[in-house]
């Protein structure tokens, strides 16, 4: 009987297939999207991504996380570089694979956005700007500083509650912990510990702050989902699972031996943090 593939096996096979199709020489900016059964929205999402930002070419990598529909085909049709993983392992696993593909293929900057069209592609340049200017290592959009079209009062309250908790835990004011449109220097993704299969946004944010990377927030827009439904569960399930990730990541980072970002091999010479601010 054939033994099941391990996550390492799955990643290795997916990376080998991706490299055989697209090579290993990406432009400076890689936009990474994790997608699961998003055939109705992924094409428009990819089409909206700018081909050039501040004179630098971009490449869009869509990691298809075990989809059973035409997500991969629609992403390819729109011009994305597609890494089609046969197993559904969660958004966190898909993003980690995307980070590695971008980082090891020469991208200097990584931007993440969602496949469902909730983030305005016009915000990509704005969120990436402080990283390109050397003012931050990691920038995240904020619907609180910007605008949101959603009307779910429970979700809105949750955004503020988790922002308060993470601000208290980390000592840095954060207004939006789960915004999926983010930009970072590629090396940052290899310097933090990422293990969560889902609800990974808070794990990454707490990790980069805890390790002394410079973090800023940028006003951005949260739109209504273009098609389909959320894969993260209802409000109670989402809140419970998200809070577990927040607390677990904070405790893990507290127990980690102190180290400077430069000793991790990927941060700037100054570990100064930048408070959340508008641009």
UniProtKB/TrEMBL annotation:
The lineage of its organism: Bacteria, Bacillati, Actinomycetota, Actinomycetes, Streptosporangiales. Residues 258-273 have a biased composition (Low complexity). It comes from Nonomuraea harbinensis. InterPro entries: Glyco_trans_2-like, Glycosyltransferase_2. Belongs to the glycosyltransferase 2 family. CDD domains: DPM_DPG-synthase_like. PANTHER family: RFBJ PROTEIN, UNDECAPRENYL-PHOSPHATE 4-DEOXY-4-FORMAMIDO-L-ARABINOSE TRANSFERASE-RELATED. This is Glycosyltransferase family 2 protein. Residues 31-189 form the Glycosyltransferase 2-like domain. Pfam families: Glycos_transf_2 (PF00535). Residues 254-279 are annotated as: Disordered. It comes from the Bacteria.
